[in-house]
Design goal:
Structural class of chain A: alpha/beta
Number of helices of chain B: 18
Structural class of chain B: alpha/beta
CATH class of the largest domain in chain B: Alpha Beta
Strand content of chain A: 5-15%
Strand order of the largest sheet of chain B: 10-7-6-16-27
Distance between the termini of chain A: 31 Å
Number of helices of chain A: 15
CATH topology of the largest domain in chain A: Rossmann fold
Helix content of chain A: 40-55%
Radius of gyration of chain A: 19 Å
Number of strands of chain A: 8
CATH superfamily of the largest domain in chain B: FAD/NAD(P)-binding domain
CATH class of the largest domain in chain A: Alpha Beta
Strand order of the largest sheet of chain A: 2-1-3-4
Oligomer: heterodimer
Order of helices and strands of chain A: EHEHHEHHEHHEHHEHHEHHEHH
CATH architecture of the largest domain in chain A: 3-Layer(aba) Sandwich
Shape of chain A: globular
Largest sheet of chain A: 4 strands, parallel
Number of domains of chain A: 2
Bound molecules: flavin-adenine dinucleotide, iron/sulfur cluster
Distance between the termini of chain B: 26 Å
CATH topology of the largest domain in chain B: FAD/NAD(P)-binding domain
Chain lengths: 297, 653
């Protein structure tokens, strides 16, 4: 893969709750030759609340960011966060499909958006442009012996007409990347189930049940860790794992990684660039089991 | 020429938006028109009598009727002319219904257009010639393609009526899907008990020749005189010697071959006899899995066979059969459900198809009729049935209903209870379609007497719970809530699709097929088992999803059509054929090469090569006449002069 530069939209959670996702994404991209050119002065995509209030206003938030990206002159915008991606894609799609909608949104913007840049997840570019084979060649510390389940969440590949990536029912992109990094990927039947999303605040019982089901399945399959690609999923499974345990009378201790953290680890990147210390459930036992295996081999 | 013009009202169909009286008034001024009138229903008895009367009274020698499409009534009016003593080809039809009144609302514009179309017809008719149909002999043998229940019915009916029947079956046994079924709705009688004897009759009937493991390779000729090339596929066993003892099957060491008869449930062998009642009951080697044929070693069956029937040298063989009519009865295949990732996409062994379940229920199946689930051989207690898998789903390109899945699902729920009394069946359905005789009562019985739990809604996801069972999650749209059912076994009522390679077969037979590959009937209501090709008929699910009673009925109907055709002394050929003007023909041979039916041969005429049309073979497609650089080959009734006259009639300005 030749070095390619993309516009990069980090998203707000990357500045806070998922700082480690943001950090490891940058580190992995750099290591494999993907240049991320951060959109100057980007703003919030509106997350879930904006589009539940007003579609035009919500599209204007993303429209602003797309406009700034277009000026950078790259052909595509990348973001690690599935929720940001949904908003960027929805705004772009609706504006492209309807002149009247585009006009309505443009009226709200300082500068009207003319060419709408393409948008993709970092995962899609790692999977499609770099590819598992090229990745495998760069692996310095194979994740040998680490049993993981991949959890994509409900919006990374859905709705299929919008996201246009991987299978909406049985996605495999993270599986392939994890295998390339040397991990053993277990068949996880709940790959695209909902974790409860942002209901964690309003309806905690819901998240306890839904995330509980995910952890229970991962645990009963014998996974050492769960791999995610979404800040919200990661938070529900990791930060709330203690709550889930007490609500469900369970005692899971499953580390919940961002896939970029494990890829970075496999590529031999320094721990500091992967933010492993930010995880709530201690990932060290899982990571040590890899090293242990390596020493035996 | 004295031409009569009749403008039909078709009730209000035409008269509603066309001033027919005005059209007939205009037509009176057209050249050689001696008489013109409008008429209420030209095709009705008084309508036709009116035409006959006018022919006599006005000494007409040609007739134009402006009414509906010629597909509807051209034959009717040609008959009328014959009854009045005119040549039936001295007739033209102007379609002012489908092409005018049904598609436009402007009465004045419609009236003008109708008058123009009548002018075209008149100009064409002025150049028509009387044509005489030739008569030819019929070969009173019939080819039946496909040996499912529909084909069996058609073949036996024809054979019992004294006709010679050739049956071609793709698989190594006849019987089709019905042979794989355990019991049949709505009577729950044993499928092989009712089908078995019929299959034996096929084997024993003196009038029937059966080619199993064979396919139709090519068809030439025309109604009454088809010539059919049949490919007998290499089976590596000499069927004249094979006694069907099955010793080879037992000893064959190649055990990875798919057991297609058992729908890939249970073990298969490279050499196989599909089931005990197979007709013919002969062994066949699957070359792809045979160790001898792939690696050159083994040959166990050859050593063991007591009748020396194994023949590794056997090759495909082409034979030719001459027949007068063809019945296509190639049935259906099942939708490949693995596109549904939400049902596991084929990853979970305990999610199976309905036809696989029939094999599990069947006493001659891989489990001897004991329901055991594939993963661990456990007897399931909770069985979940999901209907409409690959039916009524636009997202997978199958918007149509497969017709019989509701019924067989109810049957399977009943049979599950019979086999495993302490079991519970759950059925996820969209609507229950049970319109046949005793059908609705049957589905009610499954619910009320056999306790099947019917849940109206689609299933969103099937997944293993990690503890050996499956979870089926779906919507209960009547209760307005989500349901989750724990299942030991999930059975998918997979939809019907056209049999593999149906379009290719249709092209060989020169019949039409729809966008899903089902063969097209001659008319959706009035010609359900005819096709648009004379002498080719349809039976069973090859025309669209059909259950057994409907397939059998259509098998008999197709047979009666064949018998009717063959009851004629001779058949009349269509005189609308190509014809070579020998003076203009330069013998270039282009038409010989271009004719798709091989209807033109080169002949020697006083030392010069010339083209000659074999009239009985010519289908009147007209390709040759547009190919001929000299305009020497012309299609009778559609000559260049006739078509140009029509063009000039509407392009007058
Ligand atoms: C699970 C299940 C349960 C069912 N249960 C019932 C029931 O209880 N009652 C009921 O009424 N119906 C039932 N049906 C429907 C029943 O199977 C069909 O109605 C019936 O099989 C249709 O008969 P057919 O002869 O038209 O087609 P098929 O049975 O499909 O037979 C077609 C034959 O043609 C052969 N063939 C195909 N292509 C070619 C070719 N190119 N050249 C030569 N041969 C070819 C095939 O090998 C096959 O032998 C059930 C169906 C399923 C899937
Ligand atoms: S030669 Fe082929 S068919 Fe015969 S026993 Fe060996 S593998 Fe089976
Ligand atoms: S019209 Fe010509 S090309 Fe067509 S079938 Fe007849 S001879 Fe052949």
């Amino acid at each position: 893969m030749t070095k390619h530069t993309y516009s990069y939209y980090p998203g707000c959670s990357g500045q806070g709750t998922s700082m480690e996702y943001e950090r490891s994404t940058r580190a992995v991209c750099e290591a494999v030759g993907i240049n991320l050119d951060e959109i100057p002065d980007w703003s919030c995509c509106g997350s879930t609340p904006a589009h539940t209030v007003d579609h035009t206003l919500s599209a204007a938030l993303s429209g602003r960011n797309l406009g700034l990206a277009a000026k950078q002159g790259h052909d595509c915008v990348l973001t690690p966060c599935p929720s940001c991606l949904t908003n960027l894609k929805t705004a772009g799609k609706h504006m492209a499909e309807s002149e009247t909608f585009k006009e309505k949104v443009n009226r709200l913007l300082d500068e009207p958006l003319e060419t709408i840049p393409d948008t993709k997840s970092v995962l899609q570019v790692l999977f499609e442009d770099l590819g598992p084979d090229a990745l495998a060649k760069k692996v310095a510390r194979p994740l040998k012996g680490l049993k993981v389940v991949t959890y994509y969440g409900c919006i990374l590949t859905r709705p299929p007409g919008l996201m246009d990536f991987d299978s909406e029912e049985n996605p495999i992109s993270m599986d392939k990347l994890m295998q390339a990094a040397g991990a053993e990927v277990l068949q996880f039947p709940l790959k695209t189930e909902c974790c409860g999303a942002s209901h964690g605040v309003a309806r905690r019982d819901l998240v306890m049940r839904l995330s509980g089901k995910l952890l229970d399945m991962a645990d009963s399959l014998g996974a050492d860790a769960v791999v995610t690609a979404c800040p919200l999923c990661q938070m529900n499974l990791d930060l709330r794992q203690g709550q889930v345990n007490s609500a469900n009378n369970a005692s899971y201790r499953l580390p919940i990684f961002y896939y970029t953290q494990l890829l970075g680890w496999a590529l031999g990147l320094p721990d500091a660039s992967l933010g492993l210390d930010k995880l709530c459930v201690d990932p060290r036992p899982a990571l040590q089991s890899i090293s242990a295996n390596k020493e035996v081999a | 020429m004295r031409i009569g013009v009749f403008i039909c009202h078709c009730g209000s169909n035409i008269e509603g938006t066309v001033d027919t009286a005005e059209v007939s008034r205009i037509a009176r001024d057209y050249p050689e028109v001696a008489f013109a009138t409008d008429t209420m229903y030209a095709c009705s008895e008084p309508g036709q009598d009116g035409i006959i009367e006018a022919i006599g009274e006005h000494k007409l020698d040609g007739v134009v009727v402006a009414s509906c499409t010629p597909r509807m009534h051209e034959a009717t009016f040609r008959n009328t002319l014959e009854r009045a003593g005119l040549n039936p080809y001295m007739f033209e039809m102007a379609n002012i219904r489908e092409h005018v009144s049904w598609i436009g609302k402007d009465r004045e514009a419609n009236t003008n257009k109708a008058a123009d179309l009548v002018r075209m017809a008149v100009e064409k008719l002025r150049r028509n010639q009387p044509l005489i149909a030739k008569e030819f002999d019929i070969n009173r043998r019939v080819l039946v393609i496909g040996g499912g229940v529909a084909g069996i019915q058609a073949a036996l009916d024809c054979a019992d009526a004294g006709l010679e029947v050739v049956m071609v079956e793709r698989e190594s046994t006849i019987g089709g899907k019905m042979a794989k079924l355990d019991k049949t709705f709505p009577t729950v009688d044993c499928s092989s008990c009712i089908l078995g004897p019929r299959m034996v009759e096929i084997a024993q009937h003196p009038n029937i020749t059966l080619y199993a493991c064979s396919e139709v390779d090519g068809v030439s000729g025309y109604v009454g005189n088809f010539s059919v090339k049949i490919k007998k596929k290499a089976r590596y066993v000499d069927w004249d010697k094979c006694t069907g003892c099955g010793e080879c099957v037992e000893k064959c060491p190649s055990r990875k071959a798919p057991n297609t008869f058992d729908e890939k449930i249970g073990p298969g062998r490279a050499i196989n006899i599909p089931f005990p009642q197979a007709i013919p009951k002969k062994a066949t080697i699957n070359a792809e899995y045979c160790i001898k044929l792939t690696k050159g070693k083994c040959g166990t069956c050859e050593k063991i066979c007591p009748s020396n029937a194994i023949d590794f040298q056997q090759q495909d063989e082409i034979i030719t059969e001459e027949v007068g009519a063809v019945v296509a009865a190639t049935g259906y295949d099942l939708f490949d459900w693995t596109v549904y990732e939400e049902y596991g996409g084929g990853r979970y062994p305990d999610v199976i198809t309905s036809l696989q379940y029939e094999r599990l229920l069947s006493a001659s199946g891989p489990t001897g009729g004991h329901v055991k689930r594939p993963s661990d051989g456990k007897e399931p207690k909770n069985v979940v049935f999901i209907q409409c898998v690959g039916s009524r789903d636009k997202s997978v390109g199958r918007p149509y209903c497969s017709g019989f899945c509701c019924m067989y699902t109810a049957k399977q729920a009943i049979l599950t209870k019979d086999h495993i009394p302490d079991s519970t069946s759950y059925v996820f359905y969209m609507d229950i379609r049970a319109p046949g005789k005793l059908y609705d009562e049957f589905t009610r019985r499954a619910m009320e007497e056999y306790g099947a739990q019917y849940i109206r809604g689609r299933v969103a996801m099937v997944y293993p719970d990690g503890k050996g069972n499956m979870i089926v999650r779906g919507a209960d749209t009547l209760m307005g809530r989500q349901v989750e059912v724990q299942a030991d076994l999930v059975v998918l009522a997979v939809g019907v699709e056209s049999a593999k390679n149906s379009p290719q077969l249709a092209e060989k037979l020169r019949i039409s097929y729809d966008s899903y590959g089902f063969f097209m009937e001659g008319h959706p209501k009035l010609k359900p088992c005819e096709t648009n090709t004379a002498g080719v008929y349809l039976a069973g699910a090859c025309q669209g999803p059909k259950d057994i009673p409907a397939s059998v009925a259509q098998g008999s109907a197709a047979a009666s059509k064949v018998i009717g055709l063959f009851s004629k002394e001779k058949l009349k050929s269509d005189p609308q054929t190509a014809n070579v003007d020998i003076k203009r023909c330069i013998g270039c041979g282009k038409c010989v090469l271009t004719c798709p039916f091989g209807a033109i041969k080169e002949v020697d005429f006083r030392g010069q090569p010339k083209a000659e049309v074999i009239e009985t073979v010519c289908q009147g497609c007209g390709i040759c006449s547009s190919t001929c650089p000299q305009g020497a080959i012309q299609l009778r009734h559609f000559t260049d002069n006739q078509i140009l006259a029509e063009v000039e009639a509407i392009c007058r300005f």
